[in-house]
């Protein structure tokens, strides 16, 4: 089971990035959440098999059609809550 926290920077708010991330994660069977941060970045917490999480992170580098992703900073995490879905948090 792979668990990561990713911070996505660029033009990633106001471009449906969270909605597309949720759809992609659900398609891949990844659990966790996506949320906007106050500094304009987006945070993704993703939990799942390594191949699925890696595929989501590869997708995150391009994101939604209107997004302009400058950078995705990915760090492994160990202490994470139990998820039963991939949610958009506010």
Description:
There is one protein chain. The chain is an alpha+beta fold. The chain has one domain (2-79): Alpha-Beta Plaits (2-Layer Sandwich), CATH 3.30.70.100. It has 2 helices and 5 strands; from the N terminus they run E-H-E-E-H-E-E. Strands 4-1-3-2-5 form a 5-stranded mixed β-sheet, covered by helices on one side. Strand 2 (31-36) and strand 3 (42-48) form a beta hairpin. Helix 1 runs antiparallel to helix 2. The radius of gyration is 12 Å and the shape is globular. The relative contact order is 0.34. The model has no long low-confidence stretch (mean pLDDT 98).
Please write out the topology.
Layout: E1 2-11, H1 17-28, E2 31-36, E3 42-48, H2 50-60, E4 68-76, E5 86-89
Parallel strand pairs: 2-5
Antiparallel strand pairs: 1-3, 1-4, 2-3
Helix pairs in contact: 1-2
Low-pLDDT segments, ≥5 res: none
CA distance, first residue to last residue: 26 Å
How would you characterize the largest beta sheet? 5 strands, mixed
The level-1 CATH class = Alpha Beta
Count every beta strand, where a strand is a DSSP E run of 2 or more residues: 5
Number of helices: 2
Name the average pLDDT: 98
Which structural class matches the secondary elements?
alpha+beta
Q: In CATH terms, what is the fold-level topology?
A: Alpha-Beta Plaits
Please identify, by name, the CATH architecture: 2-Layer Sandwich
Strand order of the largest sheet: 4-1-3-2-5
Helix content: 25-40%
Q: How would the global form be characterised?
A: globular
Q: How much strand?
A: 35-45%
How many whole angstroms does the radius of gyration measure? 12 Å
H/E element sequence: EHEEHEE
Q: Please indicate the count of domains.
A: 1
